Amino acid sequence: MKIYDSLLQRLQTQYKAIDPIIDYVSDERLLTPPAPRKWSIHDQIAHLARYQVIFIDRMQQILDTPGIQFGAYKADEDNQFPAYQLTSLNDLLRSYEVDRAKILALLNRLSDHELTLVGVHPKYGNLSILQWAEFFVLHEAHHLFSIFQLASGN
């Protein structure tokens, strides 16, 4: 079992939609939440950048301890998330690129057997590393759509 083409392509390119989506968005709009207790575009990007680090860590935990159970990741309960929110957009995007390269390198080096190792998601149950990667890009796509909506004023 290898990483299938559509997953690999999304891992390689999906995040690159951020730049064209926000290219003409004012700094004010990037930083302004749409409503109280809702994330701004910048917060959404900070979340995606932070979640890549969480994802890498979880994949390593599955490799080290197959069958490990994870709690739900909640950014608002993550004591490191506020630092990401305070990071400049340029630095977030740079770290995003670096961490995505780490994700691709990690997944590409795994054997067929390792891709089938399971970690337990609190809502979706047993997920192989391959399924976690699919979940990761779908989660990312959800936030990219939110960024698109906020950037277009909706």
What does this structure look like?
The chain is mainly α and 154 residues long. It has a single domain (5-11, 40-151), classed as dinb family like domain (Four Helix Bundle (Hemerythrin (Met), subunit A), Up-down Bundle). 62% of the residues lie in helices and 5% in strands. It has helices at 5-13, 18-22, 27-31, 41-64, 81-85, 89-109, 112-115, 129-151; strands spanning 118-121, 125-128. It has a two-stranded antiparallel ribbon with strand order 1-2. The mean pLDDT is 96.
Distance between the termini: 41 Å
Summed up, the domain count is: 1
Question: What's the CATH architecture name?
Answer: Up-down Bundle
What is the name of the CATH class? Mainly Alpha
**In percent terms, what proportion of residues is strand?**
5-15%
Specify Rg, calculated over alpha carbons.
Answer: 16 Å
Strand order in the sheet with the most strands: 1-2
Q: Tell me the structural class.
A: mainly alpha
Kindly report the average pLDDT value: 96
SSE string, helix = H, strand = E?
A: HHHHHHHEEH
Low-pLDDT stretches: none
Q: What tags apply to this protein structure?
A:
2 strands; 154 residues; 62% helix; mainly alpha; 8 helices; two-stranded antiparallel sheet; globular; Four Helix Bundle (Hemerythrin (Met), subunit A)
